[in-house]
Amino acid sequence: MLDIGWSELLLIGVVALIVIGPEDLPKLFHTLGRITARARSMAREFSSAMEDAAKASGLDDAAKSLKDVNALGSKRALGLDALERATERFEKWDPLNPRDEARQAGPVPDPAAPTPAPVAEAQPQTMVAAEPPGAPVEGRRQLHAVRRSDRDQQD
User: Fold this and answer.
1) How many domains does the chain have?
2) Same domain, yes or no, for 48 and 84?
3) Alpha helices in the chain (DSSP H)
4) Is the pLDDT of residue 1 over 60?
5) Within a domain: 132
6) Domain assignment of residue 99, yes or no
7) Is the dihedral of CA 9, 15, 19, 23 positive or negative?
8) Residues with Cβ within 8 Å of residue 153, at least 6 apart in sequence
9) How far apart are CA 87 and CA 71, in angstroms?
10) Cα dist from 126 to 44, 50, 100, 120, 122, whole Å
């Protein structure tokens, strides 16, 4: 906007008071207020008429489809960001010291990739041979099947 400070406004007010006079100054401000209000209302009407014309002509739909096309053409959507990261890692790669690089920087996961579901750890199964088959043992799993090699040794 206009870069006018308080000192400049005070100077303009004093000059207007001297030039126009104290009797006509309120009338001038009233007239300026009306003109400003009319200009603002005309600007609002013009912008609303332009928006209505854009909606009627289908320009809004074209703008939305253009935004969608721009979003599809982004680096992340095309996977180019991952390609750039791989290129940077390849350029930094030293074929003479592959172990040093592996210690310094491990594999970097792709931030766009979905996170894998947590895998439940399998508990080790232990064989119980000393207890009778019907007795429950706490903290251990019992195997009910007999291996073929064990069956052959019993016979």
Assistant:
1) 2
2) no
3) 6-20, 25-57, 59-72, 75-78, 80-92, 98-104, 148-154
4) no
5) no
6) yes
7) positive
8) none
9) 23
10) 82, 79, 41, 18, 12
39 lies in some domain? yes
- From its phi and psi, is residue 139 left (phi > 0), alpha (psi between -120 and 50) or beta? left
Whole-number pLDDT of residue 91: 84
Question: What residue type is assigned to position 113 of the chain?
Answer: A
Task: Spell out the residues 6+ positions from residue 76 whose beta carbon is closer than 8 angstroms to its own.
Answer: 112
With tokens 């791989």, the residue in question is 86
Is residue 139 helix, strand or coil? coil
The verdict on residue 4 lying in a domain is: no
**Three-class secondary structure of residue 35 per DSSP:** helix
Q: How many residues does the chain have?
A: 155
Which pLDDT tens digit goes with each residue over 35-89? 999 999 999 999 999 888 878 887 777 777 877 777 776 666 667 778 888 888 8
Same-domain status, 53 and 77:
no
Q: What angle do CA 61, 63, 68 make, to 5 degrees?
A: 95
* Full residue range of the structural domain in which residue 97 is found: 73-104
Q: Are residues 14 and 53 in the same domain?
A: yes
Task: Specify whether the CB–CB gap between 143 and 128 falls below 8 A.
Answer: yes
* 52 and 80 co-located in one domain: no
